[in-house]
Q: What sequence folds into this?
């Protein structure tokens, strides 16, 4: 089509006019072309005059790509997203056509704004071209309408929420808002009828309006002639006049080609985004496309009855002023230097729009991904934890994020309230105890922080207090492990030492004690907060580099119940459904996918979801490890590192521990152990034992009792699980009782660890559990010999207990 | 108009044509590739369209009478998996060597659905009047060939049929992938 036209066009004009050949006599093409293309342009062709044509070209591009997309698009809730995905992923070049259409829309908006500014500067809207301008403004409105309606069609999350907000904005229009919204929305809610309506607007009504208006626009433009440069005299312009064809057309076409190639190359590298299918049940950080961002941001500043100012009054006023501008600006001059007011207004508006767009995009904070994910999928967190049950994420958003920001940084209002805390700051996190935070939420902090007592339930407030801790997690995870000790007083010195030890090349003899001795002073000064303060609510993602591998993961998360040999014998009494991994029948009855699912999402009453703890990668390794049981892998390796150093051989056996990779998530061990251990430089043997106790806790107890010893996660299924941080509980159980419980199990659910841990290990574990208790009544610093004495006492109690046990019937499961 | 100006103008026109043509090509190539893509899928004649489908027990079919049974196919249709049903003409005979006959109901003329008329013992095309005898052999009218038999097999007393589309309007039987 186009080349053929070109061939005809290339005939010399005179020839066509005079001869009136075969086609001319039948179609009148020459005459039409003369009217359309050969009218002289005063001042000749100019690059600067090409914006209008470029816009027309981009419209053509949008029309072509839009029609192509419409060939494979089905506007209904069930099909919209799948069909767009089909276009994107299955159809040959579908992704490319869609990218052209997607990015072409942005290009068109930019070009339209350029065109508008240029016309304004040129004074091209002045007499006699007022109508051309007004039609142009209507075209711009059509364009915005197209952008808005087209945005919904892919029906991905972004589209859904942006449109929801857009329709909400329409609804705020005074008097007719609801009707207007109903008309646009088509149905009772955003759905099938909205899609079909939007598709009709986007594919039929608005393009037709745009075409008609464009015809009028171009007609008026041709009628009045191109606006000549203001700096040329009429005589000069007359002298330089040349026809539209081919000079101006060539310039337009060259720019169009440049644009097309540029856009084409861009689209090769940046395919049009397609988010997850819209699911109103899921939380989503709704954001409009960039060209609506300023408006989006603007709406933050209007509240309550003034909302409508931002949503309706200002935009409408702007549109009306823009539309009527030729009538408002009565200054007949076109030279920008002679109309300072108009140009000042333009600069102001441009700077305002541009600035607010950039500001809105630059300061736009979205919830960090891990937190987002946690908020999205309940499965990502331990089940039925109070935090999830309370929907704390939503509570935070509804009540706190306006000031404290989605990221807890307080950025939205920091300018006005410099004292607003940054929840991401470790310094702040460590300076505040849970209780302080709870009080501050409850009672507020005058003058700016309002009290939430009465507005939120006690549980919600507690949940929020814990949730706030999560903001610091990502930063904590990023901090290099060995370097963590300096600026963060609360980062426990003990784990740092342990970690440093683990990271260091294995030198079993000296290193531990050396590192240990350098550490204590820091911890002496600042007693660490309660164990809970560290609880990583949405657990920090595991840095992939430090993937600890199947055996380690198994020891940390599975061995407590499934046992080192994978048979799960230890807890079968309490949890009859626990599988025996060495059972080939069981192995073959479970597909890999099922296994992965159980690991990631949990299973039954007691199997906790590990998604947030080990990640998919870790789950894969675990799965492989579990599979290995069927091949008769000896259970020994799982147990080795857990074996505590017997006091005499501590150093010799310490070596295996070096293999423990550093765990990136904040650990309870250091926190609770901090005060006791670090008061003095204890002999390395003691540190080893404490370290072992920490490891043993992690491997055997943490799954149920939790990092903080509160047992929160398991309480739903095990109501009797104690809270180790509870003072009364600590008081009512003496060390011997603790040891007995560990040794023999307790109630229906606490397994007996007697065959897994040695008596002295059990004793140390008891001491470790003590550390969860309230710090106040306990001596904050124990002298080394005091600690030793305590161990001595424990030892005696233990011996007594052992004797008692010996007299009881044989222990279950003892090898 | 002087020769120089004329030449310059010719040159500009030539350039403009070239650029416009280039734009056209840039837009037309991906557009055509997108629009014409189905050609390629249609033209690779794989023949056959999936597996044999169970249509029921042979014993339940009436003897020596043409019976329409329905056959359900799962097919990937664009962005979703759809189930489509086809009717198939089946006749059971007492002959143990050829227990059933299975004929496609699609008229080989232009694809109308054929009907069995027991009174005249013929298949009749409702569109253009083509007729076929009780064995599906072409008797009269415009169809270029006899009715198309479909592959079937009998297992454990159940009849399995494989659906197949054939190109219509031609004398030879050419499978068309569906």
A:
């Amino acid at each position: 089509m186009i080349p053929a036209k070109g061939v005809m066009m290339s005939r010399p004009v005179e020839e066509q006019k005079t001869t009136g050949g075969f086609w001319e006599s039948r179609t009148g093409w020459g005459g039409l072309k003369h009217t359309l293309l050969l009218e002289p342009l005063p001042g000749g062709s100019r690059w600067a005059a090409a914006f209008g044509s470029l816009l027309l070209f981009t419209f053509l591009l949008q029309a072509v790509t839009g029609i192509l997309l419409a060939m494979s698009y089905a506007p209904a809730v069930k099909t919209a997203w799948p069909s767009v995905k089909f276009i994107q992923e299955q159809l040959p070049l579908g992704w490319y056509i869609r990218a052209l259409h997607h990015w072409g829309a942005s290009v068109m908006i930019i070009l339209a704004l350029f065109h508008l500014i240029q016309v304004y500067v040129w004074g091209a809207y002045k007499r006699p071209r007022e109508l051309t301008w007004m039609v142009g403004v209507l075209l711009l409105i059509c364009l915005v309408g197209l952008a808005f309606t087209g945005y919904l069609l892919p029906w991905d999350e972004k589209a859904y929420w942006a449109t929801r907000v857009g329709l909400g904005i329409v609804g705020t229009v005074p008097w007719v808002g609801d009707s207007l919204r109903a008309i646009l929305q088509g149905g009772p809610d955003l759905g099938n009828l909205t899609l079909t309506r939007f598709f009709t607007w986007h594919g039929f009504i608005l393009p037709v309006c745009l075409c008609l208006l464009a015809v009028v626009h171009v007609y008026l433009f041709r009628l009045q002639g191109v606006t000549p440069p203001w700096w040329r005299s009429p005589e000069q312009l007359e002298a330089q006049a040349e026809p539209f064809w081919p000079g101006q057309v060539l310039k337009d076409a060259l720019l169009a080609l440049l644009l097309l190639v540029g856009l084409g190359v861009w689209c090769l590298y940046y395919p049009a985004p397609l988010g997850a299918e819209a699911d109103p049940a899921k939380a989503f950080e709704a954001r409009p496309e960039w060209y609506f961002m300023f408006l989006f941001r603007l709406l933050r500043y209007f509240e309550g009855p003034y909302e409508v100012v931002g949503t309706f009054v200002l935009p409408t006023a702007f549109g009306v002023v823009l539309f009527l501008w030729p009538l408002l600006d009565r200054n007949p001059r076109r030279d920008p230097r002679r109309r300072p007011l108009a140009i000042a207004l333009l600069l102001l508006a441009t700077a305002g729009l541009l600035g607010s767009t950039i500001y809105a995009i630059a300061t736009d904070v979205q919830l960090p991904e891990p937190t987002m994910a946690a908020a999205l999928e309940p499965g990502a967190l331990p089940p039925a934890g109070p935090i999830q049950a309370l929907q704390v994420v939503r509570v935070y958003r509804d009540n706190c994020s306006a000031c404290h920001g989605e990221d807890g940084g307080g950025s939205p209002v920091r300018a006005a309230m410099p004292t607003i805390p940054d929840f991401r700051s470790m310094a702040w996190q460590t300076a505040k105890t849970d209780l302080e935070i709870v009080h501050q939420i409850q009672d507020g902090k005058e003058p700016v922080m309002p009290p939430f007592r009465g507005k939120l339930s006690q549980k919600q407030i507690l949940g929020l207090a814990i949730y706030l801790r999560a903001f610091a997690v990502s930063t904590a995870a990023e901090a290099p492990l060995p370097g963590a000790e300096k600026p963060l007083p609360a980062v426990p010195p003990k784990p740092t030492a342990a970690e440093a030890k683990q990271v260091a090349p294995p030198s079993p003899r000296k290193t531990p004690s050396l590192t240990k001795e350098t550490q204590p002073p820091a911890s002496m000064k600042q007693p660490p907060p309660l164990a809970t303060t560290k609880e990583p609510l949405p657990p920090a993602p595991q840095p992939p580099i430090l993937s600890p591998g199947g055996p380690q993961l198994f020891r940390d998360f599975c061995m407590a119940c499934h046992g080192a040999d994978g048979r799960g014998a230890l807890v079968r009494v309490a949890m009859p459904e626990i599988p025996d991994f060495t059972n080939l029948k069981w192995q073959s009855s479970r597909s890999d996918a099922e296994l992965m699912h159980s690991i990631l999402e949990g299973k039954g009453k007691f199997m906790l979801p590990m998604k947030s703890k080990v990640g998919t990668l870790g789950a894969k390794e675990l799965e492989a490890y579990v599979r290995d049981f069927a091949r008769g892998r000896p259970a020994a390796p799982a147990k080795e590192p857990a074996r505590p150093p017997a006091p005499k051989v501590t150093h010799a056996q310490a070596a295996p521990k070096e293999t423990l990779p550093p765990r990136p998530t904040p650990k309870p061990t250091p926190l609770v152990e901090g005060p006791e251990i670090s008061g003095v430089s204890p002999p390395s043997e003691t540190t080893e034992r404490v370290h072992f106790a920490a490891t043993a806790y992690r491997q055997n107890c943490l799954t149920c009792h939790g990092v903080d010893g509160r047992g929160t996660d398991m309480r739903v299924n095990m109501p009797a699980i104690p809270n180790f941080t509870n003072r009364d509980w600590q008081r009512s159980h003496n060390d011997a009782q603790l040891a007995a419980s560990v040794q023999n199990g307790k109630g229906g659910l606490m397994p007996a660890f007697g065959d897994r841990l040695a008596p002295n290990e059990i004793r140390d574990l008891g001491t470790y559990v003590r550390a969860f208790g309230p710090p106040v009544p306990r001596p904050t610093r124990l002298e080394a010999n005091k600690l030793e004495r305590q161990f001595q006492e424990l030892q005696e109690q233990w011996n007594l207990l052992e004797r008692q046990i010996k007299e009881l019937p044989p222990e279950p499961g003892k090898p | 108009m002087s020769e120089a100006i004329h030449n310059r103008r010719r040159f500009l026109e030539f350039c403009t044509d070239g650029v416009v043509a280039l734009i056209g090509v840039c837009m037309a190539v991906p557009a055509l590739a997108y629009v014409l893509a189905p050609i390629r899928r249609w033209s690779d004649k794989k023949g056959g369209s999936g597996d044999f489908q169970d249509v029921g027990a042979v014993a339940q079919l009436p003897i020596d009478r043409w019976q329409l049974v329905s056959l359900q196919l799962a097919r990937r249709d664009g962005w979703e998996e759809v189930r489509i049903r086809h009717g198939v003409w089946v006749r059971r005979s007492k002959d143990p060597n050829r227990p059933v006959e299975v004929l496609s109901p699609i008229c080989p003329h232009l694809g109308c659905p054929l009907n069995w008329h027991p009174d005249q013992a013929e298949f009749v095309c409702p569109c253009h009047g083509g007729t076929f005898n009780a064995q599906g052999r072409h008797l009269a009218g415009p169809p270029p060939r006899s009715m198309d038999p479909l592959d079937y097999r009998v297992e454990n007393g159940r009849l399995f049929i494989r659906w197949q589309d054939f190109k219509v309007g031609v004398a030879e039987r050419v499978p068309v992938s569906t």
